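testing teh design pipeline on a random one, pls ignore if ur not involved
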């Protein structure tokens, strides 16, 4: 009761947002994007995949684009940066990091990118999200492995780490987005053996040989 004798209005609380359900919806969004692309994706398809009502999705995300941006941003890195392989060589480290889950994760990310590629030139915010969530995690792993190789004297300290770190993800993206070909571990190994390691160590090979000076005298 208030001092004027009237009862305070009772506020009805809606159902609390369930982070677990959000994760299911975001995963369903990524699956539909990878399968159908942005143009083919609908809220109905996502709702059916997530076994949720359309109203549930619209209460959380005002538009399809907002849902897609959140879904892409939610992609988790496949690797623990504090537990990367340390085999004693750059090639060994790069190949050891290509475990099956990581390869599958990388291919799924590329399919998601292919699904939203038409939006990237017109939506800078989404392009930034894609860079952070889909490309940067792989580049971050490569930077650490290349730096280790520099520290042990396998690679020149003048090496262009940034260039080499993005070679494999860039070539994989090109293969998926433009050549429409699948990505598997054999393809990534071919990049490691044909471009990254030869370029980093100065061994003659077709590739970006100017990215790193040779460690040879």
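output:
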């Amino acid at each position: 009761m208030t001092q004027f004798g009237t009862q305070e209005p009772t506020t009805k609380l809606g159902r609390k947002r369930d982070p677990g359900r959000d994760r299911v919806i975001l995963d369903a969004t990524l699956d539909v994007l990878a399968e159908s692309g942005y143009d083919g994706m609908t809220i109905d398809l996502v709702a059916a995949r997530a076994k949720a009502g359309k109203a549930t999705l619209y209460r959380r995300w005002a538009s399809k684009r907002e849902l897609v941006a959140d879904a892409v941003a939610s992609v988790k890195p496949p690797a623990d940066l504090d537990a990367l392989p340390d085999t004693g060589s750059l090639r060994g480290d790069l190949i050891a990091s290509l475990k099956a889950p990581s390869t599958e994760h990388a291919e799924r990310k590329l399919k998601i990118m292919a699904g939203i590629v038409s939006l990237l030139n017109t939506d800078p915010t989404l392009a930034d999200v894609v860079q952070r969530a889909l490309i940067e995690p792989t580049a971050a792993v490569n930077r650490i492995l290349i730096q280790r190789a520099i520290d042990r004297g396998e690679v020149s300290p003048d090496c262009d780490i940034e260039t080499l770190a993005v070679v494999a993800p860039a070539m994989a993206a090109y293969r998926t987005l433009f050549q429409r070909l699948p990505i598997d571990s054999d393809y990534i190994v071919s990049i490691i053996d044909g471009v990254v390691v030869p370029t980093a160590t100065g061994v003659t090979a077709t590739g970006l040989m100017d990215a790193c000076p040779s460690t040879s005298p």
